[in-house]
């Protein structure tokens, strides 16, 4: 027999044996994973191993020394090996199917994190999980952390979840864009204090680029960025599709222009025109400049162009959304000429367990809500939609406390108080400070109501979203003014309660 034929046969047999080995290995590996999963108890189940999912799992291992069970739909996903190397167990399957969730030990899990962009898939997964818990009624409490962008969907899911309130499940919702916006505006006063910049000089907030992140930042600007008694601020958004973006935002938030004047402008690629329009080619400390499209590369390109076109004759800071470029951020931070460029929203800060569960981020908001409920005990002056326990509150009602909490650091900044862990004496305000902060607090409260679609009427109507206090400070009754003063006065009681 010719040696070539012998070699071909040997080669063919080798390929067959290798193929058989890979099949056996795969089958064995899958069975082994299922066996290991069957022994897991009080564990975390996560869905998907995208870049965000992988970073979350990395945080779970480093911050909480926990190894999760991950459900991934794609068997050949590029991140599988890196996730496995950290000790997490990867099960290949569709998390929308009951069998897959059962194999992941969902009945014995303590936590389920569904961090997907596809909202339909998120809802299907939660429906299947609720069905399992409704039928089996496990003793183990399952805390579900669910990523949804649309607050209306959140309220729909929350109301649906009430049907299964006896099934030992808790549903918590998070929105990464909204959380990035809150984190950005929480850090901004610290930067201004560190650089000795006067935040009250700001008269304009400029956004270059528009998307889900920019919209969340805009909403947070309108809700908490209140620095003056007379509300001297305007918002400009430079967008590739300004007319469409303006119409969409106006339809969703029809009362937003009651807060600040808002302009959507077409950005046609001319940085020079943008700079001239906003007088940014001189030393301008009156503008907060934020580059925040949903695309990291576009943001970086925009930020660097603006930086270099104003180099040497302007010192205004440029805040740039950058979620994934860790190495690039590190490289740029070493360049002195880049010291005006501030990155935010990076994945290492946002895709970790604490940020997603929001337990620390909402501590102050929950304390404000609990304090509010105590003050209203026995009173019928407030709607029940604002006085139920935190877990069952609507997102609108939660945001009322969140925005009040998020603005506290600005009140401290405006009165030159310590921004972190203020002492009791730091929260004693003189008469002038108290009146000034009360006016700003009233403006902030009105802004939040306007963003939720409320308007003025002489008689309050929660169904029609009408409120008699949506008027200027000088037109308020003295009793209504005192409510705003009391909000400032009770900061000391609030912080004292948190320290216990």
Automatic annotation (TrEMBL):
Residues 47-161 form the RCK N-terminal domain. The keyword Transmembrane helix applies. Keywords: Membrane, Transmembrane, Transmembrane helix. The keyword ATP-binding does not apply. SUPFAM superfamilies: NAD(P)-binding Rossmann-fold domains. The chain crosses the membrane at residues 6-24. Residues 434-494 form the Ryanodine receptor Ryr domain. InterPro entries: NAD(P)-bd_dom_sf, RCK_N, Ryanodine_rcpt, Trk_Ktr_HKT_K-transport. It holds the Pfam family RyR. This is TrkA family protein.
């Amino acid at each position: 027999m010719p040696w070539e034929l012998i070699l071909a046969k040997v080669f063919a047999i080798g390929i067959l044996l290798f193929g058989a080995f890979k099949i056996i290995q795969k089958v064995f590996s899958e069975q082994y994973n299922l066996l290991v999963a069957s022994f897991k108890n009080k564990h975390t189940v996560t869905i998907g191993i995208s870049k965000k999912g992988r970073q979350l799992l990395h945080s779970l291992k480093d911050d909480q020394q926990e190894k999760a069970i991950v459900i991934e739909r794609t068997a050949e996903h590029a991140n599988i090996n890196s996730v496995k190397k950290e000790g997490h167990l990867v099960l290949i399957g569709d998390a929308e199917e009951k069998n897959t969730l059962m194999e992941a030990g969902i009945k014995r899990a303590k936590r389920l994190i569904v961090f997907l962009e596809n909202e339909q898939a998120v809802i299907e997964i939660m429906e299947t999980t609720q069905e399992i818990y409704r039928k089996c009624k496990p003793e183990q409490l399952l805390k579900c952390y669910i990523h949804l962008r649309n607050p209306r969907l959140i309220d729909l899911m929350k109301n649906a979840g009430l049907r299964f309130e006896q099934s030992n499940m808790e549903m918590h919702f998070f929105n990464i864009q909204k959380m990035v916006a809150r984190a950005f505006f929480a850090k901004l006063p610290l930067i201004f204090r560190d650089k000795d910049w006067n935040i009250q000089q700001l008269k304009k907030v400029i956004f270059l680029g528009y998307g889900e992140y920019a919209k969340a930042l805009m909403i947070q600007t309108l809700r908490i960025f209140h620095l003056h008694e007379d509300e001297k601020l305007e918002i400009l958004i430079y967008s590739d599709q300004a007319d469409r973006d303006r119409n969409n935002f106006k339809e969703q938030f029809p009362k937003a222009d009651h807060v600040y004047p808002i302009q959507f402008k077409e950005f046609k690629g001319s940085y020079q025109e943008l700079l001239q329009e906003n007088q940014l080619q001189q030393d301008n400390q009156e503008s907060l400049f934020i580059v925040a499209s949903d695309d990291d590369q576009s943001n970086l390109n925009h930020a660097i162009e603006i930086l270099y076109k104003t180099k040497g004759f302007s010192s205004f800071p440029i805040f740039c959304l950058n979620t994934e470029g860790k190495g690039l951020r590190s490289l740029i931070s070493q360049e002195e000429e880049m010291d005006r460029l501030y990155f935010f929203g990076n994945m290492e800060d946002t895709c970790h367990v604490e940020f997603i569960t929001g337990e620390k981020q909402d501590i102050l908001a929950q304390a404000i809500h609990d304090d509010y409920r105590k003050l209203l005990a026995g009173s019928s002056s407030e709607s029940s939609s604002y006085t139920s326990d935190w877990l069952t509150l609507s997102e609108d009602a939660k945001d009322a406390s969140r925005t009040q909490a998020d603005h506290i650091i600005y009140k401290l900044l405006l009165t030159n108080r310590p921004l972190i862990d203020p002492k009791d004496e730091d929260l004693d305000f003189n008469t002038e400070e108290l009146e000034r902060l009360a006016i700003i607090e009233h403006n902030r409260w009105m802004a939040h109501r306007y963003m939720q679609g409320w308007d003025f009427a002489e008689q309050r109507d929660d169904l029609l979203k009408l409120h008699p206090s949506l008027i200027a400070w000088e037109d308020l009754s003295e009793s209504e003014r005192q409510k705003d003063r009391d909000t400032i006065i009770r900061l000391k009681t609030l912080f004292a309660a948190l320290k216990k």
